Amino acid sequence: MERVALYLQDSHDLRDGLDCVRYAESQGFEAVWQAESRLVRDAIVPMAAYAAVTERIKVGSAVINNWSRNIGLLASTFLTLDDLAPNRIVCGIGAWWDPLAKNVGIERKKPLTAMRETVTVLRRLLNLERVTFGGEFIHVNGIELDVVHGRREPRNVPILIGATGDQMMELAGEIADGVVLNYCVPPEHNDRAMELLESGAKKSGRRLEEIDRPQLIVCSVDEEHDKAIEASKMLLCQYLAQQPHIAKASGVSQDVVAEIQSILGWPATKEQINKARHLVPDDLVLRITASGTPDEARAKVQEYIRRGCTSPILYPAGGNMKLLIDTFQGKAESL
After folding, report:
1. Do 60 and 194 fall into the same domain?
2. Per-residue DSSP letters for 32-91?
3. Residue 37 is part of a domain; what is its CATH number?
4. Mean pLDDT, residues 290-309 taken together
5. Can you point out the beta strands (E) in 144-189?
6. Which pLDDT belongs to residue 332?
7. Which of 3, 240, 251, 294 has the smallest set of CB atoms within 10 Å of its CB?
8. pTM exceeding 0.90
9. Stretch among 3-17, 78-92, 262-276 having the lowest mean pLDDT
């Protein structure tokens, strides 16, 4: 199968992103995934733009959160995207993270229950069912997607959970169409994830093979090894400081994280990132990213595939986007 995907966040001009997506499609990439994490770029608007300028490539969210959109709005949003690109839209959804959620007034209590309710009701609404549901977080009474003009048919929108922790990983195996495996983890981190996904899948009478497992992978490609490493350091120091769940999963020393946090503000400036990047060790970059020359990057991505990733979602850490796309070309045999 030709399953290689591109991940876009906020480091590029949005219109340049459209060109990147069109080029990735021309080179056989299966999907493009748009981030929505910090308070910087909404995922839905870019997804609609990508869908509008392409014909084949799938367009996914990696990931939106299940707290900030009402369940009716969430369902109608993905119905609308599917109207724009039928059978090409994927909903990647996660439980968000603190301190960001707390700082905008959201208390992330019982995240497993909240996610279960979200996935359950969202799936039923996209199936064009009339739904009454009384949960702890979602309360709806006789609602349905009110399609009068357009396709009055169930929508094929896979729902994948962005999971990092053990319990959310197992829940993804139980109730979702798949999981978006996180970045900034070493390949061997996937071993535990596969066990948890399989355990969850068994609860719903499924096998691990039925659970899609795309994985975000920070990827920096340059003909010069050292340049690729430095580009990844710029990205890693920001993520390790601002997203503690990723730092924990990466196995990074808390002393290193604390020192980086002492330099970076919120939001972090380029000057602060430049000042802190030297604190990220080279061996950490090589352990938790696919960084280096084209051959080195391909070899590292292959390690994630061997550990259960079904589709690498390549997160450009910087440098030449065209070179990154050309390095992989959307072909499994190139890996």
Report:
1. yes
2. EEE---STT--SHHHHHHHHHT-SS-EEEES-EESSSS-HHHHHHHHHHHHHHSTT-EEE
3. 3.20.20.30
4. 96
5. 159-163, 178-181
6. 47
7. 251
8. yes
9. 262-276
Comparison of pLDDT for 239 and 224, the residue scoring more: 224
Q: Residue 299: how many CB atoms within 10 A of its CB?
A: 13
Sign of torsion, CA 232 237 240 243? negative
Q: Tokens for 320?
A: 């030449």
CA–CA separation, 49 and 111 (whole Å): 31
Token duo for residue 160: 């994948």
Across the range 53-69, mean pLDDT stands at 97
Band (240; pLDDT cuts 50, 70, 90): confident
Whether 254 and 150 map to the same domain: the answer is: no
Residue with tokens 């969430």: 74
Burial of 52 (0-12, 13-18, 19+ CB in 10 A): exposed
Ranges of beta strands (E only) in the chain are 5-8, 31-34, 58-61, 64-65, 89-94, 131-134, 139-143, 159-163, 178-181, 214-221, 290-292, 311-316
Q: Does residue 328 share a domain with residue 236?
A: no
In the structure, what pLDDT confidence band is assigned to residue 331 with cuts at 50, 70 and 90? Answer: low
